[in-house]
Amino acid sequence: MDAAEFVRANTVLGTPSHVPEIRLHLADDAMPLWHKTEEELAEVGLPAPFWAFAWAGGQALARYVLDHAAIASGRRVLDLGAGSGIAGIAAAIAGARHVVPSELDRFAIAAIGMNAAANNVRLDATVGDILGEAAEADLVLAGDIFYERPLAERAFAFLRRAQADGAEVLIGDPRRTYLPFEALEPVVTYSITVPLALEDMDVKKTTVWRLK
Q: Where does residue 34 rank: exposed (0-12), middle (13-18), buried (19+ CB within 10 A)?
């Protein structure tokens, strides 16, 4: 079973709670899916299946972009740590010229491709670690990436370089542990319903932040 077949077999096409305009291939529970991924594909140490859920930060970014389409229209957009691709899909719907979702997980890349097709948009997803590279974007969207210190530090450095190169940087985050508050200013806050199995509460107050 290849990645696309696995995604199709273990998800259903649905709509995120805060962005009903977008359709995604979603799963019900993370841990059983994670174990099933390793068992069926005979691989250990695979990344968690972040691609199978509409996380709060990604939903916040998607909602903001859809409601403020001018921020993405005609621009080159990078969706960093894209997961399901929800923020990038919103940017494409809003009229972005070119959207690149970036992910480490080939299953995420498969899910992003399927989700793009479900929403009739084109995304040019790339797999691999790009944090040492240039963003090459006018707008960088980063949802839910500040949950581990090493990743947070590298991602923040990448976002700072992107900003220095002229990109606007928006971060969707419900105040996760390693979010660099002092470097951010809030743009808008939403109350987003999320699966209780994923978070510590079923409604997360989630902010779209702008890098100062």
A: middle
